[in-house]
Amino acid sequence: MTEPIVMYKDVHKSFGDVSVLRGIDLDIKPGEKVAVIGPSGSGKTTIIRMLMTLEQPTSGSIIVDGKNLWQMEKGGQLVPANEKHLREVRGDIGMVFQHFNLFPHMTILENCMTAPVQVKKEDKATAKKHSIEMLEKVGLGDKLDNYPSQLSGGQKQRVAMARALVMRPKIMLFDEVTSALDPELVGEVLEVIRDIAKEGEMAMVLVTHEMDFALDVADRVLFLDNGVIAEQGPPSQVLEHSENERLQSFLHRFRK
Amino acid sequence: MNNWSWEIFLEAFPYVLEGIGITIGLTIACYLFALIFGFIWTFVRRIPVKPVRWVILWIMEFIRSTPPLVQLFFIYYAWPMVPGIGMTLSPFTSAVLGLGIHYSTYIGEVYRSGIDGVDKGQWEASRALNFSTRQKWTKIILPQAIPPTIPMLGNYLIIMFKEVPLASTIGVVGILQMANNFGAENWRYLEPLTIVAILFLVLSYPSAILINKLERKMNRRFDKKTPTGSKPISKANAPG
Ligand SMILES: Nc1ncnc2c1ncn2[C@@H]1O[C@H](COP(=O)(O)OP(=O)(O)OP(=O)(O)O)[C@@H](O)[C@H]1O
Ligand SMILES: [Mg+2]
Fold this sequence. Notes:
A: 256 residues; Rossmann fold; six-stranded mixed beta sheet; 12 strands; B: 240 residues; binds adenosine-5'-triphosphate; binds magnesium ion
């Protein structure tokens, strides 16, 4: 069996007095596609934000490619990770946000190129070539010199995906990437994610409300409820044959 | 009575104008000092230790709520008498310190508003792409934080220019002091002081117009809500 690329071990998270996640244990295999579903406020976003180092777990540990993300060793003891350690470990992780978060002062091409050049020290010509290829792949080869504000929501989100993909992450996180879009633009974005998923080698964690999409793309679906993984398994089983009542009533609201 | 005399006006003009170098020089020196010191305020205010932040905020508030004139007098007259660290400073240096420090607290606020104006998502995207702290500031945050503050910073330049005559109270001889000297020697104040007013107007009005233009340009910049498929914007317009 291959080593998991990501392991959550008894991860808890509270915001002040509010306990949001109460013991998450989760292994993700390299290349595995995991869809996360659950009611609003159940902690779906929080789970992936902790992996992207945007939120620090209250307790427990997250292992990325064999390395402890939030703790590091210092003089034989585990201490909270500093920025340098976080930078080393999160290099394999990429994320696409609900609200795109493109850099408004850069062109589409610059949005994609900057991180490879600055962070990975790729030479400009190579980074440019890869970025253009990636933008062509998401169908935006003709928009290289446009600014984000000149694009539609669907186009922005495709740029955001290209921007994350040129960093060649081993794990890519998607936080409800279609929920800020007009309904008619959802399709084009899901299409791109399907294409990426087919290529295979990259693990993906997709927080989504699109059940058909989850059924289609995911290897495994997690149902998050009350701060724990209440149900998980292959999509068809979780989405169609689960006995869990809370899950059924949750799904019922989407099946109309 | 003293009636307006063009003769005296023409006589006073070159005399008063001699002070313009000092007035403009002091403005620029104070302004640069405030720009740099303002940056330091912004930086120390971000230190993630509550008591430190609290003390810094208190000092800034103290400086802001004391009149600049009092600060000038303090630095020029009182500072030399402070045991241990006190020293005598030239009028010009005192003015740069006094006005510079006073306005640096406002400029620091301007910087802060610029940084706070950058969307939270930009910080998160910088993390997700694994930029270093330095890259995050130079490539992502500052290029977005600075442009919107330029009009405000420009305004402070004009305000500073108009505050600089305060320095005449501690003996910096700018145009106001020159006009005063002329008045004392010739017992004519109307013409030289009119000249001072005109000089201030001539210098600050065009600057104000320029800043206004700049402001409109900045507001347009991130707001290109042109629909898709529009022609690309040339590189020359690219900010940053
Ligand atoms: N920074 C924060 N400070 C305080 N509370 C927070 C913070 N972030 C999230 N929460 C709270 O944690 C809980 C879980 O939030 P989270 O965003 O993970 O839920 P979610 O499952 O993604 O919900 P949604 O489907 O609405 O996006 C919510 O109750 C939310 O209010
Ligand atoms: Mg969410």
